[in-house]
Amino acid sequence: xxxxxxxxxxNSSEEDLAHRVxxxxxxxxxxxxxxxVQCGLCTSMCPASRHSEYDARxxxxxxxxxxxxxxxxxxxxxxxxxxxxxxxxxxxxxxCEVNQILREMAIQKDVGKKQIExxxxxxxxxxxxxxxxxxxxxxxxxxxDYGKHWExxxxxxxxxxxxxxxxxxxxxxxxxxxxxxxxxxxxxxxxVQEIKDVRNRK
Amino acid sequence: MEEIKKFIPTxxxxxxxxxxxxxxxxxxxxSTKYVFDKLGVEYVIDxxxxxxxxxxxxxxxxxxxxxxxxxARNFAYAIKNNHKQYVPTCATCYAILKTxxxxxxxxxxxxxxxxxxxxxxxxxxxQYTKGDIDARDDITHVVDVxxxxxxxxxxxxxRELSSxxxxxxxxxxxxxxxxxxxxxxxxxxxxxxxICEVMExxxxxxxxxxxxxxxxxxxxxxxxxxxSLDATEDKFLSLHKEKVDLLLVMCxxxxxxxxxxxxxxxxxxxxxxxxxILNIAQLVALYMGADPYKVLGIQTHTVNxxxxxxxxxxxxxxxxxxxxxxxx
Lengths: 202, 328
What we know:
The complex is a heterodimer.
Chain A: H1 17-23, H2 41-45, H3 47-51, H4 56-64, H5 84-88, H6 95-107, H7 110-116, H8 120-129, H9 139-146, H10 148-163, H11 173-185, H12 188-201
Helix pairs in contact in A: 4-6, 6-7, 7-12
Chain B: E1 13-16, H1 19-23, H2 26-39, E2 43-44, H3 54-58, H4 64-80, E3 85-88, H5 91-106, H6 108-120, H7 142-148, E4 166-168, H8 172-175, H9 191-198, H10 219-223, H11 225-242, E5 246-249, H12 252-260, H13 262-269, E6 276-279, H14 280-287, H15 306-312
Parallel strand pairs in B: 1-2, 1-3, 4-5, 5-6
């Protein structure tokens, strides 16, 4: 393992990784990243730390050490986003949210786009209907895990919803139009295209 | 009752629809409506409302700006409809909407960027004004409303449920994301237990792993299946040890993890013990006399709930379930 040098106190640049994390749109204004004392409470409660090489405390250490290689490290993709670390941290840090920001930094490069391209049917569904779905790319395994019952549910869903006295789950046509315009206006369509371009280059 | 610091609405509610409830457990929506009607809660459902993006957000497909812009769009419809109290059935919708409201109120440059995008694209009516939605008081989960009105629940009692052994599983995105707004604790979460208490349904107050996540982990369930199931096993085996009949949840994503994977987990661990999974709104509806198929929608559950109905002496016609494959 390479030895990492922690930046000396008082020498931190506004451009180092920790400060870029703090400036990210996802970072709450009171995120306690720089207050981390490496107590490890996060790791002690973390499902990914318990069951894989992921170590919540180590994620923060590497960010504070300005170790840029963490952005390309596959390990950041093991976080469950359960927010347990976030809820127990004594200094108001959130490994979970730092992780989300690191992944977004990875997505700005090809390395992150490759991690999420298998979830793009969710984006397609949202663009078409304004609704999320269980990603179609994984339906093969799900049919094995969930059995014939689940396939029957997919086929009969609309009838069952009617039997339950529920309105259509789909958005009104004019609502779909305003969702579509919103996604265009905010740049989401462009993002989707960029992720798909990486997939298609394979 | 503990002091409630946040506002809990009983009117002007938009029941915020969840994609997983709609497509996997629609009976959760029907049960919530049934219970709200009995309790005199005033709400609407709005087909202008889009998905909160939650699952896609945590698959890292949606970026923060897009999720926040879509929340601003939804907030605009709720306000225009005079039903700005969003009450989701899903813990992730609840957390996503709160985060978006906080961002829109506190980050002036983000709000302005979104409003500018709306203005440039002929969507002026969707613009968000600081303070339009209060992150604490205008977004509450269904369990908050049930807890607030819990003393009225026994007035609608139709069925005796006290013979069941029940454990509760509280959604992480309800308890842990905005923990200052969580009622009845987040390190030892108890809000579902407190709702059961008024129905005189005893719950296992504490069991090993109680405050832990379900193991779904968003992308992990799909892209990292073994890691996800390893994490689910922790709680699954603990529930087996307690020999519960029923696990109560408050989030459809947790419901998927325990209900759709029970068979897989039994095979994986070699540890067998039947327990059914219900959302707390489904159990309250059952207590109030709701039909198991036409309101609770138990036919969409992978794990049969009929064994629980048998134990309670509740009659049903199994032919109403057209989804489970039966041996003739």
